[in-house]
Design a protein that fits this description.
binds zinc ion; alpha+beta; single chain; binds guanosine-5'-monophosphate; 5 strands
């Protein structure tokens, strides 16, 4: 993808602080991190988001995430972490090339990820449950 920042990082046209790469994935430090040690894991082959990625590849990406997270925990001196992944502009995705965020959390770090909780009725919950469950 000609205009994709992450494709340019993967090809080496834009430099990045690279932690790991193999033929399928690249793992880099976020250039504008939410916290110290904020890591991004991305597939090398361009795909936009969770609706676009091959599910087996997504599985291998998550296995890699588990390994990287463990090494980060051992080496960076934190105990807690957020793992998140945005899909589409409304969901806050700013770079439309699939990537998983690994964000270390430190006591009182001020990072905010929480949402306001909705107070739905049991009926509302059941309506949504049915729609998804019956189409799996
Ligand atoms: P998103 O908002 O799409 O979930 O995440 C995109 C991430 O890419 C952001 O956290 C942002 O800081 C990071 N980012 C944007 N441009 C660059 C760049 O040129 N290099 C690196 N390493 N990270 C970038
Ligand atoms: Zn791309």
């Amino acid at each position: 993808m000609d205009n994709c920042i992450f494709c340019k990082i993967i090809s080496g046209d834009i430099p990045s602080a690279t932690i790991f790469e193999n033929d399928e994935f690249k793992v880099i430090l976020d250039r504008f991190p939410g916290n110290q040690g904020h890591v991004l894991i991305m597939p090398k082959q361009h795909c936009a988001n969770i609706f676009d990625i091959d599910s087996d590849k997504a599985g291998r990406l998550f296995s890699l995430a588990v390994k990287i997270a463990g090494v980060m925990k051992k080496t960076l001196g934190f105990t807690d972490m957020n793992v998140l992944q945005n899909n589409g502009e409304i969901a806050g995705q700013t770079v439309p090339h699939f990537h998983l965020h690994l964000i270390p959390r430190y006591e009182n770090d001020g990072v905010q990820i929480k949402w306001k909780q909705l107070d739905l009725t049991d009926e509302q919950i059941e309506n949504v449950r049915k729609k998804i469950s019956e189409n799996l």
